[in-house]
Write a structure and sequence with these properties.
Layout: E1 6-11, E2 17-20, H1 21-30, E3 39-41, H2 46-61, H3 86-103, E4 107-109
Antiparallel strand pairs: 1-2, 1-4, 3-4
């Protein structure tokens, strides 16, 4: 049985945010960060990170352009009650980003 790594995001402006490896990596990819065990989001990078997450959420919620899917959203086959959307996964992270932007402080993980 494989054990997933956890990402623990910390800042001075918000409480710690813990995400499972898969979810943390997806968030980091969306905001353009390397998938490293340790990292930082600087205050000047926060507006772009918020915009990238909001754009990804909007894309995920947009109706498909064609009826044919390429398997990109395998969890769409799940019943809606069992599915956790990108909006739901990203909301706490966006909140953390907004708080850190207001406080002009960074977010770190793995430290």
């Amino acid at each position: 049985m494989a054990i997933d790594m956890l990402y623990k995001f910390k800042s001075k402006a918000a409480g710690d945010l813990i995400l499972l490896q898969e979810n943390g990596e997806r968030i980091l990819q969306i905001i353009g960060k390397d998938l490293t065990p340790k990292g930082i989001i600087l205050p000047e990078q926060i507006p772009a990170a918020i915009a990238a997450l909001e754009k990804a959420v909007a894309r995920a919620e947009a109706p498909p352009a064609t009826e044919a899917t390429n398997g990109a959203d395998a969890d769409k086959d799940m019943p809606a009650a069992d599915r956790v959307t990108l909006r739901q996964r990203a909301a706490p992270f966006i909140d953390m980003l907004q708080r850190c932007h207001q406080a002009n402080t960074e977010i770190v993980w793995g430290v």
